[in-house]
Amino acid sequence: MRAAVMYGAGDVRVEDRPDPKITQPTDAVVRVVASCVCGSDLWPYASMPATDTGRPMGHEFLGIVEDTGADVTGPAAGDLVVAPFTYSDNTCDYCAKGLHISCRYGFDGVDGGQGEAVRVPQATGTVVKLPVNADSALLPSLLALSDVMTTGHHGAVTAGVGRGDTVLVVGDGAVGLCAVIAAKRLGAERIVLAGRHEARTDLGRDFGATDVVAVRGEEGIARIRELTGGVDKVIEAVGTRQTFDTALGAVRDGGTISRLGVPQYEEGPIGPAVFMRNITLTGGASPARAYIEQLLPDVLNGAIAPGRVFDQTFSLDQTPGAYQAMADRQVLKALIRP
Amino acid sequence: MRAAVMYGAGDVRVEDRPDPKITQPTDAVVRVVASCVCGSDLWPYASMPATDTGRPMGHEFLGIVEDTGADVTGPAAGDLVVAPFTYSDNTCDYCAKGLHISCRYGFDGVDGGQGEAVRVPQATGTVVKLPVNADSALLPSLLALSDVMTTGHHGAVTAGVGRGDTVLVVGDGAVGLCAVIAAKRLGAERIVLAGRHEARTDLGRDFGATDVVAVRGEEGIARIRELTGGVDKVIEAVGTRQTFDTALGAVRDGGTISRLGVPQYEEGPIGPAVFMRNITLTGGASPARAYIEQLLPDVLNGAIAPGRVFDQTFSLDQTPGAYQAMADRQVLKALIRP
After folding, report:
1. Mind listing the pLDDT tens digit of every residue in chain A (338 residues)?
2. Are B178 and B152 in contact (CB under 8 A)?
3. In this complex, is the C-beta atom of B291 within 8 Å of any C-beta atom belonging to chain A?
């Protein structure tokens, strides 16, 4: 089969790889119908040291089950399923708490989703059957449940967003935009979106952002405070030290910052100033699997349309170009059709 | 009047100061019946640069109202009252949310509580009348509501402690021990106390600790994990980088660390590892005032006895010795009687 493999920064190649096979009785093999490039794929695309072996890429995909191991219950050959971006058995103590990202039987990327087919470990727990056909117009929004929409939702849930709230979303990438959808869905009344790319913040307004702040740093903080007097709930959907500082500057005493962007820093300012202000820092890598069934009805009935974040479709062979277009910020999020 | 003034590290003097007077219509003057030395007073006692002017000390006291300004309602001359460690009007937007520590009209230490009398700004909102006489045996436990007990409670509340929980309390100082009381009061079933001073951890067992871990660092983390498999709720009641690392090592993925000790560090480890584990960091300086009425009934009916943390009483003139005894860890918490 053909699949995308990263060999180092800026070096993604589409090449022949062995067809995935059932190796554990808990596996399934899924033929990919749609996958995508994640914002987090851009970090290694910017900085990964060159390697001879390469790393199969992609952790968001939906597709049709082709084969299942002897122990798999639920998903069966022919089913259209979506897979969240990590594997989980859906029954361990962490999964039982809704923290599938910490599943005791989960592990990362055996195969990547940016390919023709994928071996999915812990298939019973991992994949969710979709009640539509593979040619459904809802496919992009259903694919968004594999990561960006369930991640945005994680931010809104952990920030404690509820009816009538004012929420700040920092970042106009796909996750930030999905956080806007999620905040609105949970009842936020005012949603301030901090982002500088007009096409993206326009989509954010469509999704429910009531205000856009297009300046950064101290000026951005001042503008957010001028608009809101400070916000109780912040969803930080980028992961740089600057965006974290923006969150800290904009949040009110006693407020909550939920982080969704993988931090690009090891240490952060959690000293006496943050302590005296009673700021809560929460969020983290989304337990996407925990939220799929919960969000699925709203995608099916059209209440939310996170698939609008996909602004360009690429063939599998065009995947290297999809990375470059996203790195150049010409494309918000690339959909890949094998 | 006589009052304790700090002139630098290791230099506390008891000297004559002007008698406090009403200067604002919202003030009260309170004659101190009992005050104490706070663990946080030991930080400047260890490191404050020498000064000619000095800093009046003490932010925990109870006493009898002597005089009130024209705008004061509620507290009246002759009332025995307890004052939390910061002033607050109890009506601003932050106070209304229970975040009195961030009161828009609060400010720190005009007079210190380690003296014969104190001018209390925002007296209507700040002090709470106590329904006992000044010679009540409950006085130490009522005094504990000014800080250590309400701070321990803040830790348990922000950590989300509830019925049946396993909780780790890091630190066997007065705040840590009060956090044990608070965790038990909120229904925790298992309370692991990390501390190395046997007399203190014994008191912790009396307060409800079910296990004591008396070793530090990696060994301490390993012992806590062996006992519990990791804990979902940690109350960090010290504030050093080492105790924070202990909290991080002992907490389970998806768990919460509530910090009560003023951090003795500016930056802390909140990078990808903490993010991937979905650790929530919460707590901070306690809004003590918010909790006094809530905890008062349990002190009055004897359900909790946080006053047991006071293991030695000093006269006001002996205050310098009280600091030194606490710094030398010969005394857990010093009660001062003017």
Report:
1. 999 999 999 999 999 999 999 999 999 999 999 999 998 899 899 999 999 999 999 889 999 999 999 999 999 999 999 998 788 999 999 999 999 999 998 865 556 889 999 999 999 999 999 999 999 999 999 999 999 999 999 999 999 999 999 999 999 999 999 999 999 999 999 999 999 999 999 999 999 999 999 999 999 999 999 999 999 999 999 999 999 999 999 999 999 999 999 999 999 999 999 999 999 999 999 999 999 999 999 999 999 999 999 999 999 999 999 999 999 999 999 999 99
2. yes
3. no
CA-based nearest distance B17→chain A, Å: 30
Q: Which residues contact A160 (CB under 8 A, 6 or more apart)?
A: A233, A256
One-letter amino acid at B66 equals E
- C-alpha–C-alpha distance, residues A125 and A84, integer Å: 10
Query: Packing angle between helix B217-228 and helix B241-250, nearest 10 degrees?
Result: 30
Residue A193: Cβ-neighbour burial (10 angstroms; 0-12, 13-18, 19+) = buried
Record: contact B271-A266, CB cut-off 8 A = yes
What single letter denotes the amino acid at residue A188? A
Matching CATH number, B2-147+287-337, of 3.40.640.10, 3.40.50.300, 3.50.7.10, 3.90.180.10: 3.90.180.10
CA distance B317 to chain A (A): 32
- Residues A285, B274: C-beta atoms closer than 8 Å: no
Region(s) of chain A under CATH 3.40.50.720: 152-283
Q: Are strands B61-68 and B28-36 parallel, antiparallel or unpaired?
A: antiparallel
Architecture per CATH, A152-283: 3-Layer(aba) Sandwich (3.40)
A47: contact with B, CB 8 A cutoff: no
Best to test chain B binding among A270, A282, A291 (most B CBs inside 10 Å):
A270
Element (H, E) at B68: strand B61-68
Note every long-range contact of B322-327, with CB atoms under 8 Å and residues 24 or more positions apart, other chains counting: B322/B37, B323/B12, B323/B37, B323/B41, B323/B42, B323/B45, B324/B10, B326/B37, B326/B39, B326/B42, B327/B42, B327/B45, B327/B46
Contact A56, A105 (CB under 8 A): no
Q: What 3-state DSSP class applies to A58?
A: coil
Report ipTM (2 d.p.).
0.95
Let me know: does A113 contact A23? Beta carbons within 8 Å.
no
Tell me where in chain B the CATH 3.90.180.10 domain(s) lie.
2-147+287-337
Query: Which residues of chain B have a CB within 8 Å of the CB of A269?
Result: 266-267
What three-state secondary structure class fits A233? Answer: strand
What pTM does this model have?
A: 0.95
Q: How far is B256 from chain A (nearest CA, A)?
A: 9
Q: Would you say the C-alpha torsion A156, A160, A165, A167 has a positive or negative sign?
A: negative
Q: Contacts by A317-324 with C-beta closer than 8 Å and gap 24+?
A: A317/A2, A317/A14, A319/A4, A319/A12, A319/A14, A319/A37, A319/A57, A319/A114, A320/A4, A320/A12, A320/A13, A320/A14, A322/A37, A323/A12, A323/A37, A323/A41, A323/A42, A323/A45, A324/A10
- Out of B97, B102, B268, closest to residue A270 by CB: B268
